[in-house]
Amino acid sequence: MDQFFLNFSIPSSTVSFQHGDQLVLTGSCFSDEISTKLRNAGHSVYSNPHGTIFHPSVLAFNLMDCLNEQPDTRIFERDGRFYTWNASTLISASSEQALQEKLMAVKTELRNRLSNAKLLIVTFGTAWGYELNETNEIVANCHKMPAQHFTKFLSSPYELVQDWILAIEQLRSINPEIHIVFTVSPVRHSKDGLVENNLSKARLLEAVHQLVLEENTSYFPSYELVIDVLRDYRFFKEDRVHPTEEAINFVWKQFEATYCTHATTDLNRSVEKVNKLAQHQPTRQEETHLELISSRKAALSEKNPEIYWEQAE
């Protein structure tokens, strides 16, 4: 036997994206990793405006919530800072009014982005969630508040699907053509326990495969690529939980092959080379190095004005 892994091919998607298309990503920290790859390849990306969020129902709620103009009613204060149960600790302020203004700006930007997006890429992290005992509502983050304020629970696939069917319906009202890519994070939630993590991932996978029966949706198997194809701890960081950069690169290349044309992939490589040059310490005089980067950006942009440079000159 000369093969030491299972064959696993991902069919090309019926939808593709190119430079200039608007892309929105939301979900677990794996969404952040892929958004970084997309930005580095010159794509316009709006990622996790509410911070990293792991539970699918919270993701669905935040997407639906951005479609209205109502102020946030779930703000609270801790140690002189104001937070919301709908977002991570990324979003906070020194006063309730300042936080409301910040949250409204996020809602407006997210709604505008979704209205024009070609793809919405959603990464489910865990089916385990926490309810605030005071209201019996799920929270995006416990914000280091005492554990007795919360009750931990495990969502069923049915509950997750119902929340997302409603979210999809509302998203279609502002952008009928948006294509939604669902994926499940390969990051292990080991703090829940390995058995509990596997139970959670099984529920996420079941929910996702029901959701992709909806029109203009698809499933990208990032979970299977890491857990079943790579399936080796050398592809995880020292915590044995998060994939290494090598593993993320492998998934990114598979994502490109699924949703990008050959022309887009070639342009990705060209943009990445320029960005890599910009990240390196210059071996020549600083001014000459910056001029070289600027000239290469200009040459690429002249032929491809739709390229988005993360740090424009």
TrEMBL record:
GSCFA domain span: 23-255
- At the top level, the lineage of the source is Bacteria
Read off the Pfam families from this record.
GSCFA
List, alphabetically, the InterPro entries matched: GSCFA
Q: What is this protein called?
A: GSCFA domain-containing protein
